[in-house]
Every structure is written in structure tokens, then in C-alpha cells.
Predict the 3D structure of the following.
Amino acid sequence: MGKTRSLPDLTLMTAALLLLTIGVIMVYSASAVLSFHDFGDKFYYMKRQLLFAVLGVAAMLVTMNVDYTFWKKWSKPILLTCFALLVLVLIPGIGNVRGGARSWLGIGSFGIQPSEFMKMALILFLSRYLSDNQGKITLFWKGLLPPLALMG
């Protein structure tokens, strides 16, 4: 027998998509003049934001259809991989400096910030840790301090 899937919360999905739409409109509003001046296309930055918004929605749809036990099982390897990527950023020649900070990994003309992936990895790992250690949550030294230390 296959698992039955529940429908997504329509209120939450509507709110997320509404915020995403407002964000794309705000990017256009804030950058139309600069975009036209620099690129001759007043929609340049909005199109880029829209591309990443579509990629984000696609990632959300894929992620929400993956069983949570998968994420629970892989949370530790994902966290360790993200730590390794953060260390790679610090190595000259591998990590790229942009805006005065060495926080990017360049892949061709495309760059990523491993810190963005680390945010999601921390959420996954901490949710696993807290669900596995529910009895210790009320204890400061065993319940609260380890997650705080990891986030620090």
C-alpha cells in the first residue's frame, strides 16, 4: 500500500505566493530606473528575480512532496556537507570575494553562498535533534545549550 499524501495548506501557500509576488513587484519598483540605465531594459532585475522565484517555487513543490523521514535520515550528512562548503569558501582560490567578503563559491559565471544552504541544513538538523531529544528540551545543559552552541 502506498502512503496517502495530504494536500498542502492552501492558506499558507497563498500567503507565500502573495509575498513572493509582492517581492517581485518591489524589486521592479526599486530597480527599474537603474536597470534601464545600466542594461537598457527596465525589467532586467525583475526578470532575474522572477527566474529565481520560479526556481524557488519549483524547489518548494519538490521538497514538500518528499516524505519527512527522508529529511530526518539525511539531516546530519546535509549539515556536514554544508560545513565543508563553508570551509571551502575560506580557501583562497576556491572562495570568491564579492562585496569585500569571501563568502561565495564560483561555478562558472554562477555563484552560490554556502551560508544560504547552511540555514536550511541547520533547520533540518535542529528539527531532528529536538524531535529525538524531546525529554531533554526542558533541561538547559542537555536540551537548550547544544542547539544554541551549534547555531553559534
In short: The longest helix spans residues 10-39. The longest strand covers residues 101-107. The chain has a mean pLDDT of 88.
